[in-house]
From TrEMBL, chains A, B:
Residues 152-230 form the HTH crp-type domain. Pfam families: cNMP_binding, HTH_Crp_2. Keywords: DNA-binding, Transcription, Transcription regulation. The gene is fixK_1. InterPro entries: cNMP-bd_dom, cNMP-bd_dom_sf, Env_Response_Regulators, HTH_CRP, RmlC-like_jellyroll, Tscrpt_reg_HTH_Crp-type_CS, WH-like_DNA-bd_sf, WH_DNA-bd_sf. It comes from Aquimixticola soesokkakensis. One of its GO terms (molecular function) is DNA binding. This is Nitrogen fixation regulation protein FixK.
Amino acid sequence: MTDLGFNAKDCGTCPIQHRAVCARCETDELATLEAMKYYRSFEAGQPIVWSGDRMDFVGSVVTGVASLSQAMEDGRTQMVGLLLPSDFLGRPGRAAAPYDVVAVTNTTLCCFRRKPFETMMGATPHLAQRLLEMTLDELDAAREWMLVLGRKTAREKIASLLAIIARREASLAPERGQDDMSFDLPLTREAMADYLGLTLETVSRQVSALKRDGVIVLDGKRRIVIPDFDALVAETGDDVDGGVFA
Amino acid sequence: MTDLGFNAKDCGTCPIQHRAVCARCETDELATLEAMKYYRSFEAGQPIVWSGDRMDFVGSVVTGVASLSQAMEDGRTQMVGLLLPSDFLGRPGRAAAPYDVVAVTNTTLCCFRRKPFETMMGATPHLAQRLLEMTLDELDAAREWMLVLGRKTAREKIASLLAIIARREASLAPERGQDDMSFDLPLTREAMADYLGLTLETVSRQVSALKRDGVIVLDGKRRIVIPDFDALVAETGDDVDGGVFA
DNA sequence: CGTGCACTTTGACGTGGATCAAGCTGGCGC
DNA sequence: GCGCCAGCTTGATCCACGTCAAAGTGCACG
């Protein structure tokens, strides 16, 4: 919630708006975006917006992890997206948030107020095209996840989730090879269950099973080491190169 | 595959490109789009494109139903979208099709070659914005479906599918009230199963159960009559107004 | 250095939907 | 009119995952 007071120029730590949204912007457009942006941070567990709420900003994740989820009246919930650093949040042209957005870990967003952003979009054709690109990527990810939810076994679901997170982590720190990957799981067992359409007990059992079978190594409850990424991918049911977010 | 030879002006039957894609186009842009468009038709069961294929057109469905689906190596398949009349197919800026697209019933598409369409998009800012809108709608539909796949029971899944189709049918023929809805199911039990992440036997049993309970009436195997739409919606597990594609 | 509490693991048991296996039904070609 | 066959239904059985219950773990706080 608090404004971090980052210098607007201090974007070594914020690859977001320049490269992700506006890679082809001219200098003056870049400067306009720069001048408009501001930061917000949220603590782990804090809601960012509720489904149906008015949402007057768009932005992207600088650090941390946020989740998008939908709930049924009786309490069943399904996570429909996971926002990792560089992912975009919000939708130009739409006032109401379609999902609950919650900070899973401590999270910093780089934001723009929606109205001026929309105005800018109208004046900058490739901004709209860039947003379209990003939305198509989200759509592909959502549909890939439909396959996971509809057709995969519990073990394959867990492996798919770990593979996605491992890939994302690797792309954020590309200097390391893809052997000996390791990362801190940002999700509780319950959050994993909500993403995978399982119960937390089933998640726990399958994580234990993957550990027992040597596919993953646990260091504490959250730190995951993946000794052989290909072995993990083999557990997902996907063909080797076609996988999720390929 | 065959060109139907429809008159390019004959767009009473083709509400697609004018209103869906280009509602705000100026007259000359409209004329340009008109001149570029052509029709293709496919018979029930025919593939339109395979996943990974080069796809040199974009378009939308004029009549019929097509499906988007993904397959795993071992044959498990998940339908990730259903294209009904007025739905858009294809993605500007991307050469490769990400899913298998199959004509479920006899289908007619209104197409544009991709390259000139992209050029036009670059020159016509609101075309890109309109495409973004449509893609966001698809994204919402995909995520709504993730809730169906991840958290609903077989009976709720069937009810959700019937409710979606009934709503779409009603919006195509809005003169009829929403009591006494009826329509021909365009999908086989197997296709329904692929969409819902079930087996065809389970689909058959749950359809029978909904019939036994008076939620739906079957006239033959394909014609569905819905005596009370609200009763159907009550079976979906959604809250009354929040439902899929709300 | 306990005590509390959120998170996780593990066990025992139940069940919804998958699987396997017959039939049935209705449209179409001959 | 008859046979064929794709699509559908129904039954019997199985098993992956859910449910309920009880410990275990480790970090934060006194």
